Amino acid sequence: MRDAKAMAATPADVKEYPNSYVFVVDMPGLKSGDIKVQVEDDNVLLVSGERKREEEKEGVKFLRMERRVGKFMRKFVLPENANTDAISAVCQDGVLSVTVQKLPPPQPTKPRTIEVKIA
Amino acid sequence: MRDAKAMAATPADVKEYPNSYVFVVDMPGLKSGDIKVQVEDDNVLLVSGERKREEEKEGVKFLRMERRVGKFMRKFVLPENANTDAISAVCQDGVLSVTVQKLPPPQPTKPRTIEVKIA
């Protein structure tokens, strides 16, 4: 896991919604079970996985081999208002989407109305 | 469709089986309906599609945009023994697999046995 050289990068988009951040990562050929989504150091979103080349079989020959296999990892530093207790992930058509909810903004101090009695 | 500059390449593997060729192309985020598989000039397999960025919505901001969108195309010259009438394609987890059957090898001429009668 620590060997950066063996790690392939995979393109990602990051989108900000009013109430959440969404991290979209291309992962063609990976199923949900092959992908790991973790939070490290309280503010780093870590997405990792491994794409395996199917085993060589008797009578099968590769004429071309461009698709990258192996481990890959992406790290995203989360914004301060990310709620690391409210993260969900879904993988569809080889694309992983991780949604991180935002913490509610600090409650603005309500203006206090003080009744002034006129004596 | 003819503008090569607008076309992104996408990695592919080509495998040869005893009775078929299989072309494997990464297409994360595309559904079967977004992909076109054609045979051109009788011996060229053409795989094309388009990945669209979802429409910009009010209140959604892209903080990072690495995933490529747009049209893409891959062409493969088919071997002579490819049977262009026997092609099937399936897309799963963002990976397209196109199987092209091989034509049966030309029937070897059977050795003829000529009975030689001894006079």
UniProtKB/TrEMBL annotation, chains A, B:
<dbReference type="GO" id="GO:0006950">
    <property type="term" value="P:response to stress"/>
</dbReference>
<dbReference type="InterPro" id="IPR002068">
    <property type="entry name" value="A-crystallin/Hsp20_dom"/>
</dbReference>
<keyword id="KW-0963">Cytoplasm</keyword>
<comment type="similarity">
    <text>Belongs to the small heat shock protein (HSP20) family.</text>
</comment>
<dbReference type="GO" id="GO:0005737">
    <property type="term" value="C:cytoplasm"/>
</dbReference>
<feature type="domain" description="SHSP">
    <location>
        <begin position="3"/>
        <end position="117"/>
    </location>
</feature>
<dbReference type="InterPro" id="IPR031107">
    <property type="entry name" value="Small_HSP"/>
</dbReference>
<dbReference type="InterPro" id="IPR008978">
    <property type="entry name" value="HSP20-like_chaperone"/>
</dbReference>
<protein>
    <submittedName>
        <fullName>HSP20 family protein</fullName>
    </submittedName>
</protein>
<keyword id="KW-0346">Stress response</keyword>
<dbReference type="Pfam" id="PF00011">
    <property type="entry name" value="HSP20"/>
</dbReference>
